[in-house]
Amino acid sequence: MKKTLKIIGCIVGSLILLAVILLLVYKFVFDPYHGTNYNYTEAKTLNETVSLQQAEKDLTFVIKILRSRHPAWLEEGNERVPIVEAQYEKEMSELKEAGEREVTTLEVWQRASRILHQMGDGHTGILARYNAYKVVDCWEDINTYGYPVEINGIALQELYDRFLEHFFYEMEYYAADRFYNEMIVMDSYLQLLGVDTTEGVDFTYATDGGGKTIHYAFSYPNPREAAQTEADTDTETAFVSYEIDEENKIGIFTLTECNYTDHYMEVLDDFFREVSEKGVEHIIVDLRENGGGNSYVADQFLQYLDIDGFSSWGSKVRFGPYLHINEPQYVPVTRRENCFSGDLYLLSSYQTFSSAMDFTMLVKDNHLGTVVGEPCGNLPDSYGDVLSFILPNTKLTLRCSYKRWQRIDRSKEWQPIDPDIPCDSDEAMDVAYETILGSR
Q1: Strand-strand pairing, 370-373 and 343-348
Q2: What CATH superfamily classification does 230-388+402-438 receive?
Q3: N or C: which end of the chain has fewer CB within 10 A?
Q4: Tens digits of per-residue pLDDT, 133-147?
């Protein structure tokens, strides 16, 4: 009996040891989240310095993460990989050429940005994160005179060209939208592009009377953010809302972030309940300012439609040295008692990105509704699902994709989500209304 118990104990002990070993192997070899850091971490200020060796260590950290986590390095014949590797070697060589010296956080950010830009992945990039960003309060002048033609004597076109060398994007119109409507007023990004912002900046505008130069100081925090109401900044609830236009039988569902939360599900359920009770015939989903989040928000929305199901996308997921392939799926829908069977319109813009683009693709490629506005900000055939890391010395934030998505409609591979009714995104709501009312 004792011998039997001893044997059983040995077997159990061996199984436990094996389980522990397998768990450790998965954790340190296959788990894509190993070593990630999602805690908000401020980067060192841009003029703070690290040693040359520390700067080299940060850039080496970037390329090691790409090699060990990004799917591209396991894709046979991926043309981007050697380009990224070559840029890394170039940046490291240039860094060493100046000899022993102190290196600013700004220079590390610039060099890492140029490396990651070569990836052509809108989700993989480097960020200098701070609690708030200094900006110039010049929007009133831009509204009056248009965009400046020069900043500190540097042509705006030249700054834009520099921006394209540092920014991570898939579609240039998305990059242009970010540059002209956000980056040109931000202290940190102007520094990234080589603008000396120590004494503020001079914006030169082209006017009927010739060039007009206005000097701006940077303010902290962002005055536009400070002017927002408490309700606007309550991101836990303000990201989703709706209204019912009873007169025209139109329901408008606005989603500025793809947050899959209990609050989202409550609002979604309330919306479709009122849609049913008030006889709504047309729904407009506004995703124009939605930069993404969790794709399940779209799946849940479609569960309220009068459909049998919908096709979803395939993907490749990297687990350490292994690239797992998920085939496209068909997602069945169990019809609700008061499911919506009217017309669906979806508003998109260049800022409709990531999971918001996925939402648009589900509607577009399954022929569930009409897309109105501008093309989405990134491609359906793209990398995504971001891992977050902190560079060891400058504390810059590295974002790296570990999945690759495939468009549902494979006949449109590598094509953006183009709207069915193209128009300026600012006019998309009016165009959707005109289309609905004109169809009656």
Answers
A1: parallel
A2: 2-enoyl-CoA Hydratase; Chain A, domain 1 (3.90.226.10)
A3: N
A4: 889 989 899 999 999
